[in-house]
Design goal:
The structure is a single chain. By secondary structure, this protein is an alpha/beta fold. It has a domain at 5-34 and 94-198: Rossmann fold (3-Layer(aba) Sandwich). The protein has eight helices and nine strands. It has helices spanning 17-27, 57-65, 84-92, 103-112, 126-136, 141-155, 170-185, 188-198; strands at 5-10, 31-33, 36-38, 52-54, 69-75, 78-83, 96-100, 117-122, 163-166. The strands form two sheets. A five-stranded parallel β-sheet has the order 2-7-1-8-9, sandwiched between helices. A four-stranded mixed β-sheet has the order 4-3-6-5. Strand 5 (69-75) and strand 6 (78-83) form a beta hairpin. The longest helix has 16 residues, at 170-185. The chain binds guanosine-5'-monophosphate.
Length: 199
């Protein structure tokens, strides 16, 4: 069985990452999602252990000390981190693991997992991005300004990624990510064991 791999999806707040990832997972039951830990307070409707593991600063620091994170970063004033054990176990099982993380985290992953696949999701325009964050109605005015400022900054890191997907329509964006996954599964580097087994 080919080894699994990490699929990192980043993009500015309002790029629709959350919606796209949700749809991607609904349509592809074989993909697994890595649930991050965060010190951010839960939004309405978010469930502990499903959307995030919501922890306080003390617990987050303890997890850092215990080397429980594959990567972690401060994003928009809160801490976010990817629990290492889940990810490494799933990859060993041959699963494709989706990491919805920011650019700082993606850069850390790139140093550790050269074979990971990096997708940058962008909105059709900055105007649309602002509309989406405002419409979501979950952030304060200051937080919206911070997220917009950070969005421009994050866009500068696009060349660290392998693919750009424009999220103008959710289904179309998901189609493109599925196409990327299918192609990535066929990389020679991932299929070496299969070649050996047929010789
Ligand atoms: P939100 O608060 O809107 O759920 O997420 C804010 C930002 O944090 C998003 O860009 C999201 O991708 C990022 N993020 C979520 N989980 C992680 C994580 O485990 N690590 C890193 N580095 N970023 C994360």
């Amino acid at each position: 069985m080919p080894k699994g791999f990490l699929l990192v999806i980043s993009g500015p707040s309002g790029s629709g990452k959350g919606t796209v990832c949700k749809k991607l997972l609904e349509r592809n039951k074989d993909l697994v999602f890595s649930v991050s830990a965060t010190t951010r307070k839960p939004r309405k409707g978010e469930i502990d252990g499903v959307n995030y593991f919501f922890v306080d600063d003390e617990k987050f620091n303890e997890m850092i000390s215990n080397n429980e994170f594959l990567e972690y970063a401060n994003v928009h004033g809160n801490w976010y981190g990817t629990p290492i054990k889940f990810v490494t176990d799933e990859i060993e099982k041959g699963e494709i693991v989706i990491l919805e993380i920011d650019v700082q985290g993606a850069i850390q992953i790139k140093e550790k997992y050269k074979e990971a696949v990096f997708i940058f999701l962008i909105p059709p325009s900055m105007n649309e991005l602002k509309n989406r964050i405002v419409k979501r109605g979950t952030e304060t005015k200051e937080d919206i300004e911070l997220r917009l400022k950070n969005a421009l900054n994050e866009l500068k890191f696009v060349d660290k990624y392998d693919y750009i997907v424009i999220n103008d329509e959710v289904d179309k964006a998901v189609n493109k990510i599925e196409a990327i996954i299918e192609a990535e599964k066929l990389r020679v580097a991932r299929l070496k064991d299969i070649i050996n087994s047929i010789i």
